[in-house]
Amino acid sequence: YQRRVHGDERCIAFHDAQPQAPTHVLVVPKRPLPALSAAAPGDADLLGHLMMVAAQMGKDLGLDSGFRVIINNGPDGAQSVDHLHIHVMGGRQMHWPPG
């Protein structure tokens, strides 16, 4: 993986190969889950864990002034990989609306 920054029994996190911000990390579950829309009630614990890891990445990577957490879902949501992943982006001022 590209510059791995976290790993545990449920997920890994690594720097994105094509970063869209000075800091751009992906948090990816180890268990296959094609998209957020494919999640079931039984996935709630995993989804919560992924969000906690994303928050920890913000702290660990020094994004003290803020960061953005993104989950793309489906073609219109710009999901380009058929495996759920969370983008943690920071290190610059983010704009709204995002795109």
Quick recap:
With 99 residues, the chain is of the alpha+beta class. It is built from 1 helix and 5 strands. The chain starts with a strand and ends in a 9-residue tail after the last strand.
**Helix fraction by DSSP (H/I, runs of at least 4):** 10-25%
Strand order in the sheet with the most strands: 1-2-3-5-4
Strand proportion, as a percent range, falls in: 25-35%
Number of helices: 1
Shape: globular
Structural class: alpha+beta
Q: How are helices and strands ordered from N to C?
A: EEEHEE
Mean of residue pLDDT values: 95
Distance between the termini: 28 Å
Number of strands: 5
Low-confidence stretches: none
For the largest beta-sheet, the strand count, sense and barrel status come to: 5 strands, antiparallel
Estimated radius of gyration: 13 Å
Commentary on this structure:
The protein is globular and about 35 Å long. Strand 2 and strand 3 form a beta hairpin. It is built from one helix and five strands; from the N terminus they run βββαββ. The protein has 99 residues and is an alpha+beta fold.
Provide tags for this entry:
99 residues, alpha+beta, 5-stranded antiparallel β-sheet
List the helices and strands and how they pair.
Elements (H helix, E strand, L loop, with lengths): L3 E4 L3 E5 L7 E7 L14 H17 L6 E4 L15 E5 L9
Antiparallel strand pairs: 1-2, 2-3, 3-5, 4-5
